[in-house]
Each structure stands twice: as C-alpha cells, then as structure tokens.
Amino acid sequence: MADLIQLLVAGVSIGAIYSMIALGFVLLWQTSNTINFAQGEFVVLPAFVMVFFHLILEWPFLPAFIATIVVSSFLLGWVVRKVLIARLLEQGLLPLIIATIGLALFIRYSLQVFWTPLGLYFPPVFPRVTIQLGSVSLPMEELLNLATAGLIIFAVHLFITRTKIGWGMQAIAQNRPLAAVLGIDVSRLVTLIFILNAALAAVAAILIAPIYLVKYDIGISLGLKAFYAAIIGGFNQIRGAFLGGLLVGVVETLSAAYISNEFRDGYALVILILVLMLKPEGIWGKKEEWA
Amino acid sequence: MTREGLLVRRFVPLLVLCALLVLPLGLEQYKLFVGSLVLVYVIAAIGLNLTLGYAGQISLAHAAFLAFGAYSVAILQPHGIPFELCLLIGAAISFVFGLLIGFPALRVKHHYLAMVTIGFTIIVFLCLRNFPAVTGGSFGIPGIERPDWGVVSFESDRAYYIYTLLWAVPALASAYWIKNSRWGRAFKSIRENEMRAEALGVSLRNYKLMAFAIGAAYAGVAGALFAPLLGYIDPPAFYIERSIQFLLIVVIGGLGRFEGPIIGSIVVVVLPEILRASQGLYLIIFALSIMLMMLFMPKGLIGLWDLFIERFAMPRDASRAHRAAE
Question: Which of A97, A106, A263 has its CB closest to that of B114?
C-alpha cells in the first residue's frame, strides 16, 4: 500500500511536468493550427541554456533561471514564430509538420555537435529530503515539482479565462477570421502564445533536468509524452492537457513498477490508441469548445 | 501545351534517373553498397509516396513495416526457406499490418494519424527488443546471408546491386502503373477532398485501407532486401528516426510525384556519404535545409525541375494550363 502511494505520487509528479509541456502544445494548436513536432527540443534547449548560465557562468539560481526563460522565450517563441511558422501557415499542415521536424533535428544535432553528446549532471532545484507519513515516505522534490507545475498550469488557466488577452486567445481558437473582424490583433496574440509556450517548456526543463540527465536526445521521448497527454486528454482543453499529462505519468510509473519495465514506453501508447479509436476528441475533449 | 514540352517534362527526368540506376554498376564495391542502399530506400519510399503523396495519409509507421520485411528474412532464412519466399512473406505481413494501421486512419487525420503511426513504430520496436527468443532482442540478428541461386550467387556487392535492381525495377513499374490507374486517381481524389471523393462514389474506407496496405507492402519488400545488404539487423535500425527519414525522402523529392522517392533517396543516402568527414555538421546542414525547403520549395526538388521547364521549355500559357491540370 505504501508502495502504491509512493508510486502514485511519483507518477503524478512527473505527469504534472508532462502536462506543462502538453499545455503549450495544445495552446499552439488551438490558436495557430501549429503542430509542433519540436516540442521535446523546446524543453531540451532551455535545459542546456540553464546549464550554461547556472553551471558554466556560475550565476546564482534565480538570475540564471530568469535568463533562461528570457533567452528561450525569445529564441523558441519569437524567432521561431516570426522566421519559421509565420510563413509556413499558408502552406498547410504537412509542410509545417515537416518543418518542425527539421527544427527538432536542427536543435538536437546542434547541441550534440557544438556542445556535447554526453549527458550533463544538473543539480536538484529542490532539496532532496523525504517526508515520512506513517509508512509512506515521499520525496520533497516530487511534491514541490508537482506543486510548481500545478500552480503554473492554474495560472495559465486563469490567464486564459479571466483576462482580456486570454479571451482574445479563446476567440482566435474558436473562429480566427471572426476574431480578426472583431478587432483582435490575431498575429500579435499568436506570437504571444508562442512565447508563452516557450516559457512553459523552459520551466518544465528546469524541473525535469535534475531528474533526467541533460542530454541532447531526451527531447524525442519528452515531446512524444506531451503529445500523448494532449491527445489522451483532448486537444481542446487546458483541463484535458493537464489530466492527460497526469494520466500518462501515472500509467507509465505504475505499469513500469508492476507489469514490466521493458515496455515502459508502450503502456501510454496503448491508452492513446484506444482513445483515438473510441473517442478521437480525447477523454475530456469536446468537439467545439475550448478552455 | 506542345507535345515536345510534355515529352521533355516527362521523360528527361525519367531517363536521367534510369541512367543513375544503371551507372553505379561501373563503380567499386563500397559505392555499390551505397547504391544498393539507395535502391532499398527507393522501394520503401515508393510505398510511403503512395500512402502520403497520393492518398494524403501521413504515416510514420514505415520503419515498422521495414522491420517486418527485414526480420522475416533474418528469422526464416536460416530455416532453409528461400530468400524470395521470405521476402514475399515479409511483404504479406507488412500488407496485413498496413491494413490494420489503416483503420485508425478512417477516424483520425493529420497529426493524430502521425501519432498513431509513431505509436505503432514504437510498439513494434519494443516487441523486437523484448522478445529475444525470436528476434535476438537488443543484440539483433547477425550473419544474414544474401540470396544464392546455386548457379548464380549474389554474395558480392556488385551482384547484390543487380539483385536489388531486379526488385526495384518492377517496384518502380508497378508504382507507375498504380499512379495512372483508377486506384491512383481514387487516391488523389481522397487527398484533394475527401467529401467530394466520397460523393463521387470513391469508397473512402477501401481506398484508404489499401493506400496504407500497399504502401506498407513496398516497405516490407524493401526491408527484406535491407537485411542481407547489411548482413546484420537490430531494433534501433527500425525506430522513429527511420520513419522520419522516409518522410523526409518523400518530401524532399517531391510529394505525390513519381520521381520524388528516387530523387529523395539519392539525396538522403548519398549526401551523408559524401560529407562523411563532417558527419555532425552534415546533420545540421541537413536539418537546416529541410526547414529552408519547406519555406521556399514545399514541392520538393522535383519542383525545381518544374520551374526550369516552365521558364525555358514551355510557352507561358501552356505551362499555366499544365499546372492547373496537375
């Protein structure tokens, strides 16, 4: 029983980080019909940037963290949107998918060649102590990761549902031409979404970096998990991305522990395929609604 | 359009490509090995071009289909089953799984389909890795032999190039036939507008399933030829990166164009060999050029040839009419 609770917490904790990555993914799709196959690399690059500021330049944590968010929001948000995506949107979905695959390869190989093909150690953000609750011992790190990710997702939720800019984003998601007619600056808001996505990915990167080693090729599996989370939860809801992420995290952790570790990457997939066959709009997704 | 224009447009690229297929026979051993690899990729890419280029169904499961072909040969051949039969079995398995993977395509599109097919590739990869009794597990299967007919053996790289050519030519010919048959037209009609196609009496279900199954069967054949070419196969050779590689081949060459898979395969296989000295840099340049290409040449390299023809070989009006007809 104690084992089960510990595994559940571990699963929910890693799942919350997947949720953050999935959330940006869903926002991009909703507001700009961009499927970002480089989403995993959007997490890896900030992790390396953080290594640069924090470990190489030896800045204290907070300035390094802020610098990382600023740099990756600029590069992966603004630059990617202006240089790559803006021109591609007219050409349909497929060129966009391929171009983001190209972007993913570009980031991955650049890090491998110009930086290092090895995994880099990253110091834990939160203290590595365990809290003892009866027979259950819970790592502080997992709880704080969960709390951080949960808070940030909740903040994004409030931003989208309670602010004027958020309403504008919802309007774009529902009907882009109409939103434009009503005087919403579509292009500006979409750029903002790109920046938001990059920032979310950067925070996820800093939470996940101490768990995995910082390595050029971890983006593939991270991006896939975010994608699973988005699809399982439903592509049109923040709640969906959140719950989808948690589900992927929990299923992965529990099944790796109780069934077999070899097929670890496969279990979430089975759910994914079932969801797609039975309810393609996602477990919590609805067809025409958002946020 | 003038008849000559049409002839130049259609047949010059074809002639050039045929020459490219035969020319490597004059080369030395290692280059012939690379040449055979190109042919194997061409066969697999033809299949993906059918699924994605003509029928418009994105598939990232091609690495898995390649694996079915390769593992069929690697597993069955040591039991004394002739290579050709193994190849056909591999193609048949791929065909059946292609049908199965086609079913989700009836319900979901674009990125969802991309995801389902990636998922399939991962599941096949995990199975290959985790059933060592059959597949050799992560160590793979070494010592896969090239076909030997008793009278002629295809052991050398030169002979094996000829052997792959023997399969590549009918693959190309059948693809050309499919393209111009009612099947090809039905596929294209689905790509352009599903609803309209259905209204005109094209059975979406049957044709979509077939687009996947036939595409997969080509990959199965390619996989069967791939295994003895390398002589050794292991699961990582059939992971997502391989699927993405095929996707890039088809797009770089020119989606939905007959010449596309050939041009794409040559670029994707031969360029790294030439730039081997700067291996890492090559990958970066490659990734960059994919993005640039999508930005400025979404129709692939064959699109360049089209532009050239439009500029120099065809009168303006004719070229416009031709483009409209495509």
Answer: A97
Helix and strand totals (H; E) in chain A: 12, 2
The dihedral through the CA atoms of B73, B76, B80, B85 has a sign that is negative
What distance in Å separates the CA atoms of residue B192 and residue B196, rounded to the nearest whole number? 9
* A276 vs B58, B116, B295: nearest CB: B116
Parallel/antiparallel/unpaired status of strands A136-139 and A130-133: antiparallel
**Chain A contact set for B116 (CB, 8 A):** 272-273, 276
Terminal-residue alpha carbon distance, chain B: 13
Residue whose C-alpha is closest to residue A110's, from B286, B195, B54:
B286
**Structural tokens at position B157:** 């790289």
Nearest to B300 by CA among B227, B250, B228: B250
DSSP annotation of A118 reads S
Residue B117 in this model has a pLDDT that exceeds 80: yes
Q: What is the percent of chain A with per-residue pLDDT over 70, rounded to a whole number?
A: 97
* 3 state SS of B166: helix
CB atoms under 10 Å from CB of A123, counted, come to 10
**Interchain contact, A99 vs B286, CB within 8 Å:** no
pTM listed for this prediction: 0.85
Integer CA distances (angstroms), B171 to A45, A204, B73, in order: 42, 47, 19
Cα B231 to Cα A163, B71, B246: the distances in Å are 62, 12, 21
Contact A95, A180 (CB under 8 A): no
Answer whether A77's CB lies under 8 Å from A195's CB.
yes
Instruction: Give one DSSP letter per residue of B12-31, joined into a string.
Output: HHHHHHHHHHHGGGGS-HHH
| Average pLDDT of the segment spanning A32-50 | 91
Within B77-203, residue ranges assigned H as helices are: 83-107, 110-130, 132-135, 157-180, 182-192, 194-199
C-alpha pair distances (Å), A181 with each of A32, A189, B243: 16, 14, 42
Q: Which two tokens stand for residue A123?
A: 């110091």
- Report pLDDT for B86: 94
ipTM confidence score: 0.84
Report the alpha-carbon distance of residue B154 to residue A212 in Å, rounded: 47
A137 DSSP β-pair partners? A132
- Residue type at position B151: V
Within 8 A of A97 by CB-CB distance, chain B residues are 58, 110-111, 114
Residues B111, A35: contact at Cβ < 8 Å? Answer: yes
Say if CB B221 and CB B41 are below 8 A apart. Answer: no
